[in-house]
C-alpha cells in the first residue's frame, strides 16, 4: 500500500520585539499579529554576525528591500522597507533585529 505524503502544516511563529513576545498564527500577517499584541514593528536591520545568507528573508520581502548574495550577510534598504515584519517570521537564525 502506498503511503500518501503528508502535507506540511504551517506552524505558528513566535516573535520577540523590544521585550514583547507575540504569536503569528499560520496565515496571519506579522504586522497584523504585532498590532493585535500592541507591538509596533521598528525599523529593522540584518545582524551580519548571525546572517548566513540563506535568502529566506529576501523571498519573504514583498518590496525587495532585502538584498545580498547567497551565503553572504544580507542588508535591508530602509528606504524600501515598509516594516511589515515578514522577514522576522522567515529568519530562523534571528539575524533580523531592530535597527
TrEMBL record:
The organism named in the record is Desulfofundulus thermobenzoicus
User: One matching Pfam family, short form?
Assistant: Fer4_9
Instruction: Report the protein name in the record.
Output: 4Fe-4S ferredoxin-type domain-containing protein
Q: What is the lineage of its organism?
A: Bacteria, Bacillati, Bacillota, Clostridia, Eubacteriales
Q: Which SUPFAM superfamilies match?
A: 4Fe-4S ferredoxins (SSF54862)
Q: One GO molecular-function annotation for this sequence?
A: metal ion binding
- The 4Fe-4S ferredoxin-type domain covers 42-71, 72-99
Question: Which Gene3D superfamilies does this UniProt record tie to the protein?
Answer: 3.30.70.20
Question: What domain of life?
Answer: Bacteria
Respond yes or no to whether keyword Iron is given for this record.
yes
Enumerate the UniProt keywords alphabetically.
Answer: Iron, Iron-sulfur, Metal-binding
